[in-house]
Amino acid sequence: MQLSLLMRGIDPLEITGRTDVEVASVCYDSRQCREGSLFVAISGLKADGHDFIADALTHGAGFIIHEGEFHPPAGVTAVRVRDSRRCLGILGKNFFNDPSAGICLIAVVGTNGKTTVTYLLESILRTAGFTVGVLGTVNYRYGGKTLPAPNTTPESFEMQKIIREMSDHGITHIVAEVSSHALDLKRVDDCAFDLGIFTNLTQDHLDYHRTMDNYFQAKKRFFSEVLPAGRKNRPQRTIVNADDPWGQRILHEVGQAVGSERLTYGIESPSDITASSFHLSLDGIKATLLLSGERLSVSSHLMGRFNLSNILAAAAASFALGITGRCIRDGIAALIHVPGRMEKVNTAGQPAVFVDYAHTDDALRRVLQNLSTFRTGRIITVFGCGGDRDRGKRPLMGEAASAYSDLAIVTSDNPRTEDPLSIIREIETGLRMVKYTEAGDPARHPAGRGYLVIPDRKEAIAAAIGMADAKDIVLIAGKGHEDYQIIGTKRFPFDDRVIAREELTRWQVGRKRS
Length: 514
Fold this sequence. Notes:
The chain is of the alpha/beta class.
């Protein structure tokens, strides 16, 4: 495609060189440039692309989009712009011929519940006969193909590329988790969305956003700016959790500017989509939903009140898209589990062991609250906090764990470049429990409530399951679906679910011997 066509929608400050020349590819990583590539110099979180312009030229780039001072060598076209990151999405939209225009694109926005809602929607849409693609934290998937997800939401150019690939593959609907980072970094600004869901907002990512209001403004931006900008020839819809106070702010501050249709869902607050009755158990959820007055009985393998809220979100979105109650019901029932989201890893006769991605204090509190309603024995919680991330939530995680656990084992999550023991010490400031100094202490104080520090995560999981009785519940929180642990700057193979199953086998063998 010629540079002049590729730049449609971009208002350059200055152009040096020709624009009637074919562009072979578009890159924002200088190492991927080749002969005739267009290199977009964007400022990242850890590096500035402007520092790699020379490297891009060495690799053959013939076109440079930049923000600062740059004097191109002969034969190279340079385009100076105000915001090269914003341009990257426009270039992607043009390069891939506006791929989201002909597809139903759904966004799920919020701190907690995004992944579960995408899985529920995927199941419902498939039940309704549609072909579905998903972009999210666990992976990117469509048409039997599964791709690793380096980010919850891809970079803007990659986003356009993946949507084009899905569209060419015959995908009719795409469900995407849209993160606050993606919104702040304009990764989805040039995607034409049909529907957006707001699940909730709780403290997370303050290492990046600094304040809760900044965090909220990033989320709100989807509904106030990104969704209305889609301008498709069909109504755009927004779905908001009325039980969440930040959801109420979305409704109040954005109002009907969101689009021509708006639905609320909730368990406690008056809502368009709600549950008139429900029963929660370790086997799942049974509920009667009210879809704008229409009654629908549903059963789900998912557990807990928070997952009932996720079911309502998916049902509301499906209802807004015109999907029948039967397909909504059958799609909800068809989803067996969501990877690393309250994923049960034990078998009959063993302690109930769950692996969950809960890595915020609100998510951990909600999971433990729900598990506490099913308890017949102790609740043992294994958790930690990620390094190089929001430090403010560490004591809050400790508070959440101590509020509902009989025994908490504080361990490493993904420590990254931080000292694991330093992270643990910050968590301990929020723990309102007795500190046990030896692994045998919990057995010596069976009626007490306390915590252990076991920095090695594998040892922590082994200790938790080894101490558990068949009637106990063990929650392994924080990493969920992840099959790695980040120590320093390297990833090492590590899967909570695999470790837990190994320890449950040892537990079973030990009980048979005794």
